[in-house]
Amino acid sequence: MSDLFEKIVSLSKRRGFIFQSSEVYGGLSATYDYGPLGVELKRNVSQRWWNSMVYKHSNISGLDASILMHPSVWKASGHVDAFNDPLIDDKTSKMRYRADQLIEGHIEKLRRKGKDEEADRVYQALVDALNAEDMAKGLYEVIMAEEIRSPDSGMFDWTEVRQFNLMFDTHAGPVKSTDNKIYLRPETAQGIFVNFHNVRETGRHQVPFGIAQIGKAFRNEIVARQFIFRMREFEQMEMQYFVKPGSQMEAFEAWREERMQWHVDNGIRASKLRWHEHEKLAHYADAAFDIQYEFPIGWQEVEGIHSRTDFDLKAHQEHSGKKMEYFDPQTNEKYLPFVVETSAGLDRTILTLLCEAYREEEVDGDTRLVMKFHPKLAPITVALFPLVKKDGMPEMAKKLQSDLQEHFLAVYDEKGAIGRRYRRMDEVGTPYCVTIDGESTSDGTVTVRDRDTMEQVRIPAEKVASYMIESIANWKP
What we know:
By secondary structure, the chain is α+β, with helices and mostly antiparallel strands. 37% of the residues lie in helices and 26% in strands. The chain is built from 16 helices and 23 strands. Strands 3-9-10-16-13-12-11 form a seven-stranded mixed beta sheet, with helices on both faces. Strands 20-19-21-22-23 form a five-stranded mixed beta sheet, with helices on both faces. A three-stranded antiparallel beta sheet has the order 5-4-6. The two termini are 27 Å apart. The mean pLDDT is 93.
């Protein structure tokens, strides 16, 4: 783990963004709790996504499907038979790895050493293995041929590669048996597909239209580490867009452009984002790209845009015996719509924002730690500081806090020197601090301090809200 990544993890706990789950009992691997600031950041991100996907588009409706679904859903979707990762064990350390990620790590090492030609050769071998009829055997052969060693023990003593199903299972009812086995959903998309006609009819939609959902999903990951990047319980922000067959590529490109812009509009530098085309397409897809962000741990996926064809609706039609076809009143024909999917990890988006916002700046010989969140996403928007705890300043500050809470999350802080209070708010990404001093109680003006520039302006207290609204609207990263 890089030094920068460790600093971000440390800050997340210290300032109440993210805690290790069940920490008093030693913690539970790959599960995390969002603290007071983390839950505000998460709520702001999910609301911004909902605004952009549902409120901005008149032909997209929302859904909140249940986590537990009929087990036949997962048989139809292919998850029971094919939702696997290639697992390999280091016999010396007993550590387990994803075979494909081991090879990817080896390729990255070669590139860092300037051995691009060799890296290209191994990359092609990886692509061939991923597309082979026996993927596990193909990956094992690459690891053996390249003599890839264990990252932890440094040994070259591997088990064979085998497929590992990622779904968590449980049982419905008082008695465990194969008849009442059900699963925690490994993705949110299937809840959308089985509700295709329900949403279409009640929402009075015609193709093309979309169904959006934010919800929990669960995967028994082989290697679940790197903080909240890869967890066993996580949250997805997904939208399935139903289109007429033959028009999916046009919709696919349009959503690619819109989704990339959403991340840029969140304050992410375009230079830190890139497209990654899938080397191997999923069984349901005819096109797939990932939006990747350059984390301190390297380039990793934040969101996927996939053209899923009509696989899902067709599979549920066959397994359920219920018609999933759409009658097009414009052309008087019936067809199974094709689907374009946008699937963003909410937790990964949070991690992206934490990494992007983190700054260490030199100010007057000291180091200032500041989280430069987009003001619309920052957990706290404004902090109110009485200069001293007397002479009517606390009362005026609390009155202004109450007024501003009509628009933003506003907090009150009267403890410590004013400079120390500024630094506390910088560290959690609060874009504005308002100080009430002796002059404020006499003429009604206050000082507003900007997080990014540290510049201060003196304005009437009643204009603080409008000043902030305008500043936020014009904010640039």
